[in-house]
């Protein structure tokens, strides 16, 4: 089974959920999804398991996969914790990065520049993921990286929504530039502050996300 097929299915179902094509409480039938996307049930099942792992669906006895709506408050709490974890990762990365880490971070940043310049929010979504993972790796804290990746996965659908807000991709990339500069300058406190601000959804960012969720 191709990982690309599973990823495509996961993205399609995820997009259906965040666009409210699959409403909260709706049952996601494997046979119907397989027919809809022209695949077998095996990749559908794997995609649903991945969505279950990030809390977007819940696999229930005798009902199968059901769409979950965590609500704005829960989403805010997750972003709040993510901001602190990212800040710590950035701080440690600024103190511990190696030449190999520098190369990886700059390569990920260059990929983000290409997708941002192309105005491709979906491509930027994946490039952005690689950029943040490069910072986690540069922290050289395996446990912290594990926690960051786990929560990052849970927030993936909402990060995707954020990037669809007007000008958010360009703003995100500009913020990346300042973050890279702070890390490579070894400025741990600045890297921590910038990453916390980058991930935080307080104020206008939170209201924009709530408005986007409400308009699905």
Low-confidence stretches: none
Give the domain tally.
2
The structural class is mainly alpha
Number of strands: 3
Overall morphology? elongated
Mean of residue pLDDT values = 88
Q: Write down the oligomeric state.
A: single chain
Biggest β-sheet, characterized?
3 strands, antiparallel
Order of strands across the main sheet: 1-3-2
Helical amount: over 70%
What does this structure look like?
With 216 residues, the chain is mainly alpha-helical. It folds into 2 domains: 5-67, Arc Repressor Mutant, subunit A (Orthogonal Bundle); 72-214, Four Helix Bundle (Hemerythrin (Met), subunit A) (Up-down Bundle), CATH 1.20.120. 75% of the residues lie in helices and 5% in strands. The chain has 10 helices and 3 strands; from the N terminus they run H-E-H-H-E-E-H-H-H-H-H-H-H. It has helices at 3-18, 30-37, 41-53, 72-96, 99-117, 121-138, 142-163, 168-184, 188-199, 204-214, and strands spanning 27-28, 57-60, 64-67. Helix 4 crosses helix 6 and helix 6 packs antiparallel against helix 7.
Task: Spell out the key features of this protein.
216 residues; mainly alpha; Arc Repressor Mutant, subunit A; Four Helix Bundle (Hemerythrin (Met), subunit A); three-stranded antiparallel β-sheet; 10 helices; 3 strands; 75% helix
Task: Describe the SSE topology.
Elements: H1 3-18, E1 27-28, H2 30-37, H3 41-53, E2 57-60, E3 64-67, H4 72-96, H5 99-117, H6 121-138, H7 142-163, H8 168-184, H9 188-199, H10 204-214
Antiparallel strand pairs: 1-3, 2-3
């Amino acid at each position: 089974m191709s990982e690309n097929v599973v990823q495509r299915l996961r993205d399609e179902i995820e997009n259906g959920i965040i666009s409210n094509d699959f409403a909260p409480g709706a049952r996601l039938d494997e046979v119907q999804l397989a027919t809809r996307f022209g695949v077998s049930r095996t990749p559908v099942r794997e995609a649903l398991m991945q969505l279950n792992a990030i809390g977007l669906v819940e696999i229930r006895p005798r009902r199968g996969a059901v769409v979950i709506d965590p609500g704005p408050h829960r989403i805010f709490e997750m972003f709040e914790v993510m901001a602190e974890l990212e800040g710590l990762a950035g701080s440690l990365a600024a103190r511990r990065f190696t030449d190999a880490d520098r190369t990886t971070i700059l390569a990920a940043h260059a990929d983000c520049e290409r997708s941002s310049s192309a105005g491709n929010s979906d491509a930027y979504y994946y490039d952005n993921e690689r950029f943040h993972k490069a910072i986690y790796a540069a922290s050289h804290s395996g446990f912290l990286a594990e926690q960051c990746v786990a929560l990052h996965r849970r927030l993936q659908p909402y990060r995707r929504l954020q990037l669809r807000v007007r000008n958010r991709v360009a703003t995100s990339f500009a913020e990346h530039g300042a973050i890279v500069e702070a890390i490579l300058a070894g400025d741990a406190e600045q890297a921590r502050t910038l990453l916390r601000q980058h991930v935080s959804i307080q104020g206008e960012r939170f209201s924009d996300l709530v408005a986007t969720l409400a308009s699905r």
